[in-house]
Amino acid sequence: MAGTHSLDLRVTRKQGINLVRLIGELDLATAPQLRAGLHDLSGPFLLDCEQLTFLDASGLRSLMRQHSRIIL
User: Fold this and answer.
1) How many structural domains compose the chain?
2) Would you say residue 46 lies in a domain?
3) Rounded to two decimals, what is the model's pTM?
4) Which is nearest to 62 in space by CA: 36, 24, 23?
C-alpha cells in the first residue's frame, strides 16, 4: 500500500561507536532514507535491526553497500 512505508533511524553514540537502531520497514521506499542517515555518520557503527518489521532486497542492498563501515 502506498504511503504506509516508515523507517525510523535512532542514533546514539557510546565510546566512539555509533549505534543505529532501525525501526519499521526497510524496503525500496525507505532505502534512500537509510542511505542518507548512514552517510551523515562519521566512523564505524553497529546496527540494531531487532525492531525492523520488514526487510526486502532493496533494504538489504543498502545495508551491504555500507558493509565496510559496519562493526560485526
Assistant:
1) 1
2) yes
3) 0.82
4) 36
**Residue 23 is part of which domain span?**
7-69
Strand partners, 70: 45
CATH of residue 35: 3.30.750.24
Q: Within 10 A of 56 (CB to CB), how many other CB atoms are there?
A: 14
Beta carbons of 48 and 70 less than 8 angstroms apart: no
Helix residue spans in the chain (DSSP H): 31-39, 57-65
Residue 1 lies inside a defined structural domain of this protein = no
Give residue 52's pLDDT.
96
Mean pLDDT rounded to a whole number for the chain: 87
The CA angle 53-55-61, to the nearest 5 degrees, is 155
- For residue 2, being part of any structural domain is answered with no
For residues 66 and 59, what is the distance between their CA atoms, to the nearest angstrom? 11
